[in-house]
């Protein structure tokens, strides 16, 4: 299994990441689609070729083609939105919040999967990309749809662990190359 391959690749000092990756992907309270869509969207947002390859391979057993595409779309749209909305927020002039973004975002309205699942994936990617405005917006939509905080927290834990696994593996790869 690809999750096991990543766990085995982690150095001893990252034992906590190994344990967290294993438990989060094997004992989830999320639906399979929510879990593995979050995994795919987060893996892609790390930009780590190794993490993307291993985790998308693992997710292929659990996601339909439509869900797999939607998870990739969540990463794509949030790569754009997180930069834009984080920047307009950090500027500190609230006038920007009242101006239309004039960016195409039609996938958010019609993602091809359950809207709550897509919003959850957008939230997780926004956590990795550090956009507070997007985190607030997607969390509100998810909560309004009835998903409990514990499941939202689980998606955030997945984002944190997948991001950390990618950071460690990329750092170790750079050290070997040096």
TrEMBL record:
KW Oxidoreductase (keyword) present: yes
Active-site residues (renumbered): 131, 134
GO molecular function: disulfide oxidoreductase activity; hydroperoxide reductase activity; peroxiredoxin activity
InterPro entries, sorted: AhpD (IPR004674), AhpD-like (IPR029032), AhpD_core (IPR004675), CMD-like (IPR003779)
Keywords: Antioxidant, Disulfide bond, Oxidoreductase, Peroxidase, Redox-active center
Top class in the EC scheme: oxidoreductase
Keyword ATP-binding: no
One Pfam family hit: CMD
Family: Belongs to the AhpD family.
Protein name in UniProt: Alkyl hydroperoxide reductase AhpD
Species this protein is from: Bailinhaonella thermotolerans
Gene: ahpD
């Amino acid at each position: 299994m690809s999750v096991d391959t990543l766990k085995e690749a982690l150095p001893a000092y990252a034992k906590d990441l190994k344990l967290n990756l294993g438990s989060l992907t094997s004992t989830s309270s999320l639906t399979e689609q929510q879990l593995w869509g979050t995994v795919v969207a987060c893996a892609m947002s790390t930009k780590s070729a190794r993490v993307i390859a291993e985790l998308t391979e693992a997710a292929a057993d659990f996601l339909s083609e439509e869900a797999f595409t939607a998870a990739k779309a969540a990463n794509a749209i949030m790569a754009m939105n997180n930069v834009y909305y984080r920047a307009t927020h950090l500027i500190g002039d609230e006038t920007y919040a009242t101006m239309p973004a004039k960016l195409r975002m039609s996938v958010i309205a019609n993602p091809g999967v359950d809207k709550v699942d897509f919003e959850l994936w957008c939230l997780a990617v926004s956590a990795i990309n550090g956009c507070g405005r997007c985190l607030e917006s997607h969390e509100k939509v998810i909560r309004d749809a009835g998903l409990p905080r514990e499941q939202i927290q689980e998606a955030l834990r997945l984002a944190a662990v997948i991001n950390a696994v990618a950071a460690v593996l990329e750092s170790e790869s750079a050290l070997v190359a040096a």
